[in-house]
Amino acid sequence: MNLPAQLERIREAIEAAARSYGLDFFETHFEVLDYDQINEIAAFGGFPSRYPHWRFGMEYESLKKGYAYGLQKIYEMVINNDPCYAYLLECNEIVDQKLVMAHVYAHCDFFKNNFWFSKTNRKMIDEMANHSAHVRRYAEKWGEARVESFIDACLSIENLIDYHSPFIKRRDAEPRPGAPPASEDVEVRRIRSKNYMDRYVNPEAALEEERRRLEERMRDRKRFPVEPERDALLFLIENAPIEEWERDVLGMIREEAYYFAPQAQTKIMNEGWATYWHSKIMTEKILGASELIDYADHHAGTVAVQPGQLNPYKLGLELFRDIEERWNRGMFGRDYDECEDLRERTNWDLKLGLGRDKIFEVRRIYNDVNFIDTFLTPEFCEKHGLFTYRWNEKKGRYDVEDRSGAKVKEKILAMLTNFGQPVIVVEDANYRNRGELLLRHRYEGIELRLDHARDTLRNIASLWRRPVFLHTAVEGKGKLFSYDGKEHQEIDVEESVA
Amino acid sequence: MVLRIERDHSRFKKIVRGHIKKELRKYITKGELIGRQGKDLVSIPIPQIEIPQFRHGRRGSGGVGQGEGEPGYAVNVGEAGNAPGDHLLEVDVTLEELANILGDALALPRIQPRGKRNIQEARDRYTSIRKVGPESLRRFKRTYREALKRQIIAGTYSFLDPRVIPIREDRRYLSWRRVEKPESAAVLIYMMDVSGSMGDEQKEIVRIESFWIDTWLSQQYRRIEKRYIVHDAVAREVDRETFYHTRESGGTKISSAYDLASRLIDEDYPPSEWNVYPFHFTDGDNWGGGDTELCIELLKGKLLPRVNVFCYGQVKSMYGSGQFIRDLREHFEEADNIVLSEIRAKEGITDSIRDFLGTGR
Q1: Residues of B in Cβ contact (< 8 Å) with A402
Q2: How close, in Å, is residue A264 to chain B by CA atoms?
Q3: Which among A54, A155, A447 has CB closest to B11?
Q4: Which of B3, B26, B64 to substitute to test the interface with A, most A CBs within 10 Å?
C-alpha cells in the first residue's frame, strides 16, 4: 500500500536524513493502519498472518482493552525482514508519525547490521505464512482441538533452546541412536621408550589414570546424549517418538523461537539505538517549530522512568550517549583507567572525536550482555541513580539493596543471561536404562516455580511418551521431580544424580 | 472488515469463560490494568493465561531499578521493566463503563425486573417536529428544506439564482413527545457479620464484592437505595462508613439481622414497588441455642417471599466453623431465589459475584 502523499514526502525526508548519518537499512515499507488492525498485527507479534492459536487472541484482548480504556497505545512496530515492514497508526498526529519513522529506520539499521541478527531468516513474513498454512492443514486433518493442544504443549517448552547455537557448532552430525559405537577397545597409548627407561617414561600410575579416563569416555559415549543438550526442542524433534505432523509443528515453534531470540537478546541496545536516532534525526533535521512541544512530550514519555524500574529505552539511549561522549573525549584506555585524579578524570578531553564511529561499531558487534558488561561504568550508575533491590521477607516488600556500580552490573547481567530464565538441559535420554528422560536444572541459587515446573514436565512427558524426570533444587536440597503419565512424584536426592 | 484475529480472540474468550479447554482454566491470572473511580481505585481485569514453562519462582532474584532511595528503602516494583515508560497509565472510568466491563467479563445476564414492580413513569422527550412553536426552538434546516420543497413545486426556484426564502408556513419547530418508561427501583440491604471472628481480610473481601455488586445493580436500575446492617449478637442499622469499618467482638446471632431486614422491608420497601436484594456476608459461625432454626423460619416466612433474590456469601475465616451455609443448603435446596456462595479468598470474588448476579433475577 502506498503512503498518502503527505506522509510519503515526510518519509523521503526522514530516509534521506537517516542515510546522511550513515544508517544503513533494508528497504522499509510503511503501512497506515487503524487501531483495530494495528492491534491485530501486534497480537500476531508484528506479522500479518500466524498459525491459529488462542494465545494471539489473548494478546489482542489485552491490547484492545488497553487501547479502549486509554491505558496504552502501540508506539511503534517493525518487523525484522527484508524488506522491513513497519506500521503507522492512522490517527496519530504528524509529529508522531515522524518520530515513529525515524525510530523505525534506526531499528531497521540495527536488524540489518547487528551481528546477532545475522542468522535470522530475512524472509520471515513468508515463513510465518507457511507455518500458518501448515498448521491450518493439520487442523483440518487431525482436528482443531488436537492440534491446538499439541501447540500448547510445544509452547510450554519453547524457551528450552540454545541461544548461542546459531553461531557455534556444538557437535558433529550425530550417528543415529542404535548405530554401533566406533570402537569398543580400551587401549592406553604408551610413549615409545627404551626398555630400561620404560618405568620412568610410562609410570604405572599414569597408565592406570589414563586407562580410567578412557573407560570413562567410553561409558560417556554410551550415554545419550553424549554431552548434556541445551537445545531440548531440537533433541525432542530428533528423538521423541512423535508423529510427522507433530515433528513439523514442533520444528516451527523452534524456528520461531530462534527468530525472536535476538530481539530479546538486544532489547536494551535495539531500543536505545532507535531512541538515540529518532532524537537525533528529529531535533537536528526534521522537527518543525510548531511540533516541538508535542515531540518533547512524547519523547519524554518514551524514556520516562517509573520509580524503581528500568526502562530499556532510557538505559540504552543513555549508554549510547555515554559511549559517544567517552570516545569523543578519549575517556578510555590505560591512561584514563589508571588516572586517579578525580578532577583530571572529570575534565578529561583528548578531542579524539571517535564517538560516532564507536557507537556504530558497538551496534554491529555487541548484544545486551556484553554491551552492559563493557560499557556500564560506575560513573554511569551513579549519574543515573541505578540501584539493585531484593525481596525483604521480614517486611514483605522489595527493598533497595545496593548502589555500587559492581553490584548493579552484576544484577543486570544476571537478569540478562539466558533472559533470566533457568538453564535446563537434557541429561540422559535412557535414564535408569528404561528409555526415560532426565532433565537437569542448572541450579544457580534461584528456584524454579514448582507448579509450573510440574505441568511443564507433564507436557514434556506427552511428547516423550515415557516417564520424565527433572533434577532441581528446592530450599538448597536436591530434588527429583517425575511424571510418569499418571502421577507426579518428588524424591529427595543427593546433589548429583548418576 | 473482519479481522483474522477474531477466531483466536473468540477462542480465547471461550477458554476464559470455561466453555472449552477446561484444563487451561487454572492458568488464568488476573492480569490487571489499573483504573480509578473517584477516590476508590478499581482495576480493570484483563485475564491472561500463563502457559506453564520452566521459569524462576517469583521474588527469587530481585532486580535493578532507577531512582531515589537509600539501601533499605521500599521499592515499588511492577512488572519488571521491559516496556517503554508511558505504557501504564491511570484512567478515569465512569461507573457505567465499569458495570459494562464487569458484565462483559463475567458474562452477567441483564436483570429482568418483575412485571408488577414496574412503575410507568412519563417523561417528555424533545424528539418530534411541529408547525408551531416558540422561535427559540425553530429548526433552521427543516425550515429551509420545507421552503426549498415549496419553491421547487411552485416552480419559483432557479439554479441561476438559488435564493430560498422561507415564509410563515415553512417554519418547523422542535417539539416534545411524551414517553412512558418503565421505572423500577431497587433496594440493596447489606448485612454483615462483625463478630470477633471477622477479620480485616474478610471485611476487605466484603468491601470489594459489594462495590462491584453496587456498580452492577446501579446500572440496572434507575433508582437504587442502599441500607446497611451490621450484627453480632444484636443487629443495628448503620451508615456506609461504619458498615465497612466497624469491628466488634461479640458473638453471633444471625437471626437478629434477618429480623431487622424484614422490618425494613415492612416499613419502607413494599415489594409491589421495589426490587429487593438482601446480601448477607458472614463467616458462617452462628451461635447455637436454636438461632439457626429461627433464621430459617425468618427466611422462609418473611424474607424469601418478598425478595428478588437473597444472596448469602460466606467468607472463609480462621475462626468460623462455616456451619451456617450447610444448614441453609439443607433447608433451601428447592428454593430458587436464594444463592449461597462461598468465598475462600480474594481470588474467589469474581466467581462469587457471578454466583449472585448470574441468575439475572
Answers
A1: 71
A2: 10
A3: A54
A4: B64
Give the gap in angstroms from C-alpha A190 to the nearest C-alpha of chain B: 48
Query: Which grid coordinates are listed for A409?
Result: 552490573
Residues of B in contact with A309 (CB under 8 A): 65-66, 77-78, 80-81
DSSP, collapsed to helix, strand or coil, labels residue B8 as: helix
Residue-wise pLDDT tens digits, B36-68:
455 555 556 667 788 889 888 754 557 787 877
What are B158's three cell numbers? 432557479
How far CA B225 is from CA of A386, B108, B117, B221, in Å, comes to: 53, 21, 15, 10
Within 8 A by CB and 6+ apart from B249, the residues are B195, B196, B232
Strand partners for B340: B312
What Å distances lie between residue A188 and A85, A208, A212, CA to CA?
A: 61, 9, 10
- In single-letter form, the type of residue at position B143 comes to T
Residue of A nearest to B24 (CA): A152
Q: Which class for A231: exposed (0-12), middle (13-18), buried (19 or more C-beta within 10 A)?
A: buried
Nearest to B5 among A40, A160, A384 (CB): A40
Q: Which residues are registered as beta bridge partners of B314?
A: B282, B342
Instruction: Return the C-alpha cell found at A286.
Output: 526534521
Which H helix or E strand runs over B311? strand B310-315
Q: Which residues of A touch B59 (CB under 8 A)?
A: 391
Alpha-carbon distance A147 to A135, whole Å? Answer: 8
| pLDDT, tens digit, 9 for 90 and up, residues A64-99 | 877 776 666 777 889 999 999 999 998 888 999 999
| Domains with residue ranges and CATH for chain B | 1-50+89-93 (no CATH), 120-180 (no CATH), 183-357 (3.40.50.410)
| Dist CA B136 CA B123 (whole Å) | 21
Distance from CA of A438 to the nearest CA of B (A): 14
Number of Cβ pairs < 8 A linking chain A and chain B: 253
Whole-structure pTM value: 0.71
Contacts of A156 in chain B (CB under 8 A): 51-53
Residue with cell 578524570: A345
CA distance B180 to chain A (A): 34
Bigger pLDDT: B203 or A171?
A: B203
Determine contact, residues B40/B244, Cβ cutoff 8 Å. no
Task: Locate A498 and state its grid cell.
Answer: 548418576
Tell me the torsion sign for CA atoms A84, A88, A94, A99. negative
pLDDT grade for B361, boundaries at 50, 70 and 90: low
Count of other CB atoms within 10 angstroms of residue A185: 7
- Are A52 and A23 spatial neighbours (Cβ–Cβ below 8 Å)? no
What residues does each domain of chain A span? 5-114+266-294, 125-168+228-264, 303-417, 422-492
B31 vs A: CB within 8 A: yes
- CA terminus-to-terminus distance, chain B: 37
Give Cα A329 to chain centroid, integer Å: 33
Q: Does this complex have an ipTM over 0.90?
A: no
Taking an 8 Å cut-off on Cβ atoms, the answer to whether A306 and B63 are in contact is: no
Task: Give yes or no for a contact between B79 and A404, defined as CB atoms under 8 angstroms apart.
Answer: no
Nearest C-alpha in A relative to B76:
A308
**Angle between helix B254-268 and B291-298 (nearest 10):** 20
DSSP B56: B
* DSSP notation for A439-483: EEE--SS--B-HHHHHHHHHHHHHHH-S-EEEEEEETTEEEEEEE
**Would you state the cell numbers that stand for residue A97, as one nine-digit string?**
508519525
Which candidate from A69, A384, A391 shows the least CB-CB separation from B93?
A69
Distance from CA of B68 to the nearest CA of A (A): 7
